[in-house]
Amino acid sequence: MNKFYGTGVAMVTPFQADGQIDYEGLENLIEHLIDGGVQYLVSLGTTGESATLNADERKQVWAFTVKVVNKRVPLVAGIGGNNTHEVVEQIKDFDTNGYDAILSSSPHYNKPTQEGIYQHYKAIAQVAPLPVILYNVPSRTGSTIAAETTVRLARDFKNIIGIKEASGNFDLFNQLMRDKPEEFLVISGDDPVTLPMMALGAVGVISVIGNALPKQLSAMVQLLLKNDFKAAQKVHFSLIEFTRLMFVEGNPAGAKSALKYLGVCGDNVRLPLVPVSSNTATSIKQETQKFA
């Protein structure tokens, strides 16, 4: 699945001041990212505030995204949750037209055992009409997909093609890279550790900071794919402070603040999220200016 090598971006969902979806802003964002040279886009992952969109809104965003992208880059849809039956029904109902894969986060809040996580993804794999990318993000879900569980899923289900790995646990990364099937994709899900993860064999990143700085991030990832780590380090170091600011008051508020400064879309978010503070917004503006 070479289409998922390189830089993917977990797109924000722009909102108007009244909370409605800002489709003009979404179109601007898509063009900004494609012009920035990213390899693929993820619609309605965690960064897209999918938890605050209803079923009709999700369908509308997915359809609009397909129309604007118009097959220029691959597309991934985020479909996850902690009710396995509901996730399975969402996947059955999903219009796959224009999409290349499904990204599905591990169940949050329930804190399932490893066998529960395995059975959850087994149920998804058995109905999924597209390849599935697992998503391990313990800071949000409250549980970890162990390396052994990921490897088991990769071996048992050919349509589970990879994992977005955002645990920050290098013991887990080491074990996963050692034991996984050769063709199984490990993708960084955490911007600050993309470089060291790719040094271990990850094939790229599904990024948050790429919303604002697609050109810079794509350049670094392409250098890493060419094993030019010395040149990539320079880009990595230049992005450290920007990356820190993107998450200091939560995701995607930081990314939306940078996008507002860049004139791509507004910084509105839906409750329970709120925009970044004025001090952080000033810092983000100052740091973003360095890349403008």
UniProtKB/TrEMBL annotation:
InterPro entries: Aldolase_TIM, DapA, DapA-like, Schiff_base-form_aldolases_AS. Transmembrane segments: none annotated. GO terms for molecular function: 4-hydroxy-tetrahydrodipicolinate synthase activity. Pyruvate binds at residues 47, 206. Coiled coil: none annotated. The keyword Lyase applies. Its EC number is 4.3.3.7. Pathway: Amino-acid biosynthesis; L-lysine biosynthesis via DAP pathway; (S)-tetrahydrodipicolinate from L-aspartate: step 3/4. It is found in: Cytoplasm. It catalyses: L-aspartate 4-semialdehyde + pyruvate = (2S,4S)-4-hydroxy-2,3,4,5-tetrahydrodipicolinate + H2O + H(+). PROSITE patterns: DHDPS_2. It holds the Pfam family DHDPS. The record marks 46, 109 as: Part of a proton relay during catalysis. Keywords: Amino-acid biosynthesis, Cytoplasm, Diaminopimelate biosynthesis, Lyase, Lysine biosynthesis, Schiff base. Catalyzes the condensation of (S)-aspartate-beta-semialdehyde [(S)-ASA] and pyruvate to 4-hydroxy-tetrahydrodipicolinate (HTPA). PANTHER family: 4-HYDROXY-2-OXOGLUTARATE ALDOLASE, MITOCHONDRIAL, DIHYDRODIPICOLINATE SYNTHASE. Homotetramer; dimer of dimers. Belongs to the DapA family. This is 4-hydroxy-tetrahydrodipicolinate synthase. The gene is dapA.
